[in-house]
């Protein structure tokens, strides 16, 4: 019988490092996480990945080397997972490796109306999957997003199908909010249909502002944010961003919500840094809550995962914006917040190895469901 053990690896737009899980996934797609590991990015490498989100000198060379380094970090996490589980490389069916997104511009640039050719655009995740297969001795599944782009989709978000498999509840509408660097929402309808899209910023802007003004990589539990006051005119300016008004399907990244965007939306008058942090936290919560109200009014529960679920102030602001709805961490539903996305890519890798479709046209806008990912044999 083929192995039912898969590893999922995720390094998201928060740029904090690599989360990995080793999970058992049966042919019906039921998943049980056996162990979790994390490898932090060093400050220099994190700065380099941040810089590669923008055009810069010699970026092809630097991007290729960063892809090699990502593979090495991923391999370190794989070795941690194998060590803690007691399993050997031959016991693992495949690794699902997302890679590090540095550009995401779907459905832009290369269309031609005179030829009736729709634009495809591009999405770029840095990873050397061949090197990862070499370093681990395990089949690697990578490049999950491009197949959906080729079919006319956004290529993101990819996790709503997984959310449905893990958190879906027949007969009930459930909303799942992942707050990584960017926030994305999945709406799991009672009839099994699924919607999903990126809501706007998650931790990206809050982490940047906190690191710039306190030196800390993130606002632990939202304590610094809680010490400030929301600045209503600034909040209104942030909420006027056109992306927030667009109807799904839609996806975004640091291409839009980056330090330059933030500075352009802040007044020239000096504001207390903690007040800006409080305003950014409210902005993140409000953008997400508005989408929940708009698209999931029947949901009685919002399950929050990703690093944002560990921010007590953000969770409090979400609950305040969504009266009557239970706002809970995914840990309450059996999967800790920092394991959800890594588990999703283990699950997606299992789908790929079994030649099963895993994209949702209702989420990405693609012409149909597709088998996602490319396989790099060990």
List keywords for this structure.
alpha/beta; 14 helices; 6-stranded mixed beta sheet; 2 domains; globular; single chain; Nucleotidyltransferase, domain 5; 378 residues
Task: Describe what is shown at a glance.
With 378 residues, the protein is α/β, with parallel strands linked by helices.
Walk me through this protein's architecture.
- The two termini are 19 Å apart.
- Helix 11 (273-295) packs across helix 12 (312-321).
- The chain has helices at residues 43-51, 59-85, 129-136, 146-150, 160-167, 204-214, 223-226, 232-239, 242-245, 259-265, 273-295, 312-321, 340-353, 361-364, and strands at residues 5-10, 17-25, 31-40, 94-97, 100-106, 121-126, 140-142, 174-179, 182-188, 194-201, 301-305, 326-329, 374-376.
- The strands form three sheets. Strands 3-2-1-4-7-13 form a six-stranded mixed sheet. A five-stranded mixed sheet has the order 10-9-8-11-12, sandwiched between helices. Strands 5-6 form a two-stranded antiparallel ribbon.
- The radius of gyration is 20 Å and the shape is globular.
- Strand 9 and strand 10 (194-201) form a beta hairpin.
- The protein has two domains: 5-157 and 339-376, Nucleotidyltransferase, domain 5; 160-337, Nucleotidyltransferase, domain 5 (2-Layer Sandwich).
- The chain is built from 14 helices and 13 strands.
- It is α/β, with parallel strands linked by helices and 378 residues long.
